[in-house]
Design goal:
CATH superfamily of the largest domain: Aspartate/ornithine carbamoyltransferase
Number of strands: 9
Strand order of the largest sheet: 7-6-5-8-9
CATH class of the largest domain: Alpha Beta
Strand content: 5-15%
Order of helices and strands: HEHEHHEHEHEHEHEHEHHEHH
CATH architecture of the largest domain: 3-Layer(aba) Sandwich
């Protein structure tokens, strides 16, 4: 792996598969001292439940430590430049997890940090989530070949990461969004190139019912992400036909997996009946965030580079 994990785009298919092999081992044997004496800094400009807890607990299980730095403590880019924060923390810690609004902040942190930087979420990419999601799919369906994952909702950071992850592993992905809310054009173009190499397809739809036919996995996310709160009411109207409900699920395969990266707005993008159904692997996804992130930490912090 590279020094940093900024985007799944930067990983090869082999590197992703190697990460998943290590993840499976770590899930069976949670505790180890492989990162004893190592410390990561968790710099969060956005609030978090899963990202913070999974990294802190994961680092503890690997024998290491974590330091949480809230928005008020650093005020990144305002109180102190990203460059200076990166250079200073490099003298103290062994890695940085940055959860931020703007993707350029993660890129800049990686540029100036001497230690590995992991993207804990940006407006463009959520690589830890995307990797955990695809690990969960393969854990349940075993083989990537002939799997079709349908993402219905906003073409956001999670969607971008799923496009990269699926296309690199040969999983077909259908993305259904309202017009004007499609994923990044560059990501789609690059993902189609990766998919071609791995004998899979990337398709875009503006009708979720067309996208969902014979799906193996149906995935959604909130319609308005953090930082888009002022658009919430507008988006409820635009996205109303993209709700994951029993009508949509009837078009998918009977054993179709239901996925959501959480937090979920129940009754909006997904109904209680679906998210709580026997097909739901939503909380498996949440658990697997920790296991995948542990594998990432070991690859970046534990192995000699």
């Amino acid at each position: 792996m590279k020094k940093d994990l900024i985007s799944i785009k930067d990983l090869s298919t082999k590197e992703i598969k190697d990460l998943f092999k290590l993840t499976a081992k770590l899930k069976k044997n949670k505790f180890s001292k492989v990162l004893a004496g190592k410390t990561i800094a968790l710099i969060f400009q956005k609030p978090s439940n899963r990202t913070r807890v999974s990294f802190e607990v994961g680092m503890y299980q690997l024998g290491g430590n974590s330091i949480y730095l809230s928005p008020s403590e650093i005020n990144l880019g305002v109180r102190e430049s990203i460059k200076d924060v990166a250079k200073t923390l490099s003298r103290y810690i062994d890695g940085v997890v940055l959860r931020t609004f703007e993707h350029r902040n993660v890129v800049e942190m990686g540029r100036y940090s001497d230690k590995p930087v992991i993207n804990g979420l940006s407006d463009f990419s959520h690589p830890c989530q995307g990797l955990a999601d695809v690990f969960t799919v393969l854990e349940n369906l075993k083989k990537a070949k002939s799997i079709t994952l349908v993402y219905a909702g906003d073409g956001n950071n999670v969607c971008n990461s799923l496009l990269y992850a699926c296309s690199k592993l040969g999983i077909n992905i259908n993305v259904a969004t309202p017009k004007g809310y499609e994923p990044d054009e560059g990501v789609v173009e690059e993902s189609r190139a990766f998919a071609k190499l791995n004998k899979s397809e990337v398709k875009l739809f503006n009708d979720p019912f067309l996208a969902a036919k014979e799906a193996d996995v149906i995935y959604t996310d909130v319609w308005a992400s953090m930082g888009q709160e002022e658009e919430t009411e507008k988006r409820k109207i635009i996205f109303k036909d993209f709700q994951i409900n029993t009508n949509l699920m009837r078009l998918a395969k009977k054993d179709c997996l239901v996925m959501h990266c959480l937090p979920a707005h129940r009754g909006e993008e997904i109904t209680d009946e679906v998210i709580d159904s026997k097909n739901s692997v939503v909380f498996d996804q949440a658990e697997n965030r920790m296991h995948v992130q542990k594998a990432i930490l070991i690859k970046l912090l534990g192995e000699k580079r």
